[in-house]
Amino acid sequence: MTAEVDAFVASHPLFAGLPAGVTSEIAACCRTVAYGPDELLLVEGQPADTLFLVQRGRVAIEIHGADRGTLVVETVETGGAVGWSWLFPPYRWNFDARALGPVGAVAADATCLRAKMDADDEFGRLLVTRVAGVLLERLQATRLRLLDLYGADRAG
Questions:
Q1: What separation in angstroms does the CA of 120 have from each of 22, 25, 115, 127, 131?
Q2: Structural domains of the chain ordered from first start
Q3: What does each of the 156 residues of the chain score in pLDDT, given as a tens digit?
Q4: Is the peptide bond before 47 cis (omega within 30 degrees of 0)?
């Protein structure tokens, strides 16, 4: 871990405001990574082993439909986070995540994070509470997109 990674984790919107000891513990599980345009950060069905904190660039969260091909369900920008499946058994990705251009991120090792959560209940509670907040925001955003998509169809 470098001081740069530690500072980034502490200031990232997902973790900002947490006690310094907690963000340092998270940062101890992290390393920097880079992806080129169109590279996959994660692949549906593969082991979920990383939480990505996007430093720069944009990442498309994709699903595949037999009759519709690949659909982008969300785009995560600088300051966002990608990859939640590492937190929930069976620890497999439920989506693909693709770099839409050059992407720089801090990647947190999920095994390391889970071990720290198991060892310290307060650390685990704080981490799960932050992740749950983001999941709720994304669920609400998906709800609004579905209303936009299907709401007009029901009006007639």
A1: 10, 11, 9, 11, 17
A2: 3-151 (2.60.120.10)
A3: 588 999 999 999 999 999 989 999 999 999 999 999 999 999 999 999 999 999 999 999 998 877 878 878 889 999 999 998 999 999 999 999 999 999 999 999 999 999 999 999 998 898 888 888 777 777 777 677 667 767 655 544
A4: no
